[in-house]
Amino acid sequence: MATHRPHTALGRRPFLALLAAGMAGASRVGHAAEAQVQRAELAPALYELAYSPSQKALFVASAGGFGENAPPSKLFRLDPHTLAVQAEIALPKKGFGVTLDDASGRLYVGHSVDAAISVIDIASNRVLGTVQVDEKVRGEDGKENYTYFLRELQLDATGQRLYAPGRGMKDSALFALDAKNLKLEKTITGIGPGATGVAMDDARGRVFVSTLLGRLVTVDAGSLAITRNVESGGAEQPLNLAFDAASNRVLAVDQGLESMPGFQEKMQPGFVSHHPGNRLVALDPETGKLLHEAPTGKGPLTLRLDAARKRLYVTNREGGSLTVLDSASYAAIATVELGAHPNSMALDEASGTLFVSVKNTRAAARGSKESVVRVTL
Question: What does the DSSP 8-state code read for residue 114?
């Protein structure tokens, strides 16, 4: 295992930006319709969300804070209609990414800076267990730290296996876990520097991982071996992914963060940026060929596919907005202004209601509460 200290070059604030995620009145959508946006201030350091149809509840991860007297990390359970807090679940480590197995009533929380994953029983609101996927190693500076940092979590359709990319500076890994027993099955290395997004094609048993050097890596879910490593269609910052089964395309946001080329050059000396990003791209999963692109707001961060309604939602962190696209044509349908820094999304697939975590600006007081918004289109 490498002994470098991965956060030295990136720093905590830029890394958390990579992780990042009352009635406000109606916001304009396109030129003809309106979206209803309901907002609730909740807690500091909000990141990912998950909506449970079985529990009729929205779950939101708060990482808490850093430093002395920082608030603890919690998982909040909210009423999805009023955004009122129904329960607060203390987490054993700082929570960032989440993914839900609603059929089994299990929600998985990624502890990104602690290289661990916990599982929560959403009926009883209690932590069932935590697994460590990486161990600290001593770096060149003599300090101990984890080799990999977690971001997104991806559960397969059966709920049996959980995937978690681990971002590293020299190489990254994909952790494959037995989800039911919360045990690490395999650490798949060779992903390349800067792993970020993950998506899955359950029908063909393919797991896709993107990297901040513009690569799309495919892992076979049966053998847990890398089968392809191709360019991601010219997208230099393919931060987060989704798989569109209807079109057999991998969708990615190309973030366009202005400070990212310097970080990319540290991972790959001589790296030169050729595209400003700020777009959504559709890629051929076999070749990585760019099949389509669509402009977004500034700094697209996460995307959510609503296959039933043929809608694609993109949060624009720097633009303070939500872009709504047609998932078949990629034509722009609407823009919803959310303010500050929209981060992560969850979808109530039955109603089409969207939930978004909205982060504060840097000017906000340390420890200030961040918001969850409920968007009905």
Answer: G
Domain assignment present for residue 280? The answer is yes
The secondary structure of residue 160, as a DSSP letter, is S
Decide if 246 contacts 307 (C-beta within 8 A).
yes
31-72 confidence digits (pLDDT tens)? 435 899 999 999 999 999 999 999 999 999 999 988 778 899
Considering only CA atoms, which of 115, 118, 96 is closest in space to residue 106? Answer: 118
Q: Say if strands 149-150 and 249-254 run parallel, antiparallel, or are unpaired.
A: unpaired
Mean pLDDT, residues 347-355: 98
Give residue 325's pLDDT.
98
Residue 250, classed as helix, strand or coil, is strand
d(CA 160, CA 359): 32
Mean confidence (pLDDT) of the chain:
92
* Tokens at 179, concatenated: 């989800």
Residue span of the structural domain in which 231 resides: 7-21+30-376
213 φ, ψ to 5°? -110, 20
What is residue 15's three-state secondary structure? Answer: helix
CATH number of the domain where residue 62 is located: 2.130.10.10
**Would you say residue 116 lies in a domain?**
yes
Angle at 259 between CA 258 and CA 260, to 5 degrees: 95
- CA dist 125 → 52, 91, 177, 375 (Å): 13, 11, 22, 26
Contact between 315 and 344 (Cβ < 8 Å)? yes
The residue type of 107 is L
Q: How many domains does the chain have?
A: 1
Q: Is residue 334 part of a domain?
A: yes
Residue at 2 is within a domain:
no
